[in-house]
Structures are given as C-alpha cells and as structure tokens.
Amino acid sequence: xxxxxxxxxxxxxxxxxxxxxxxxxxxxxxxxxxxxxxxxxxxxxxxxxxxxxxxxxxxxxxxxxxxxxxxxxxxxxxxxxxxxxxxxxxxxxxxxxxxxxxxxxxxxxxxxxxxxxxxxxxxxxxxxxxxxxxxxxxxxxxxxxxxxxxxxxxxxxxxxxxxxx
Length: 165
Fold this sequence. Notes:
Order of helices and strands: EEEEEHEEEHEH
InterPro entries: CYTH-like_dom_sf, CYTH_domain, NeuTTM/CthTTM-like
Protein name: Adenylate cyclase
Helix content: 10-25%
Low-confidence stretches: none
Number of domains: 1
Number of strands: 9
C-alpha cells in the first residue's frame, strides 16, 4: 500500500546538488486504474495502482504493485502509452529517520512545474506529519498534481496553477 501527501514548494531547498537524484521517464498504459511504466536512472519498472475504497481525506492511499521490467520491455511498452511521456528529475531529500522528500522538477512540456511528495507508513503518520518550512500548500487531492493527469496536458500553462496559492 502507498500512502502519500503532495505539497507545493514555498522555496527551493538549499544545495540540491548534494542529494541523490533520479532521472525519470514515465508513461501510462492506463490511468483508471493506473498502469505505469517508468525508467528511473537505469531501473525499469511496471506499476499498478488502484485507489479501491480507502479514505482519501488526509492522504492519497493506493494499493500498489511494482514489477521489474527489462530495458527492451520498457522501450516496447513506451510506444503504447496513452498521451505523452513525463520527464523529471527527482531529488531524494532526507527529512527525518522515517521520511524522505521526493522533490520533482519537471522538464519538457511541464518545465516550470515542481512539487514534493512524502510517503508514509500509515494514515496516522500522514496526518501527524509536520512539514518543513520549504513545503507550501498541501495539494494531495488536487488532480493537477497527479502524474497520471499531467500526461494529458499539453503545457505547464494549461494547468492554471496559481504559484502564490
């Protein structure tokens, strides 16, 4: 199970280059339920996500299954994705012993979009989370911050995001 919250960025974290990063390329074979393929550096993954009937009030909660893919299988499936492919750099920023901020900086048609997500061990953990000062507004339930939605837009401007929100 995946339990996560997403946040806008109120200011960029210091010294991004010091953190581990992943260059990600991903596409969606289906968005309801989510069937995603992802290249993360040199790892290739097929992911299935389904919301089922979980309470989504405090965090986004999905059943999630990840399976490894070969590079050849990824490239074959890439030609079959719906909409477009997302490209982003993900910085892994330790927050505490239990939490890591996954700070995504998007490229290409979504250049200018940045947000951060944190995964939790339980819904209580998600509710009790105290965000760092560089986190902005919680956008966990705003579809414009779901990667499965982002593949369907043609540009960052199409999202109509108020940076000052």
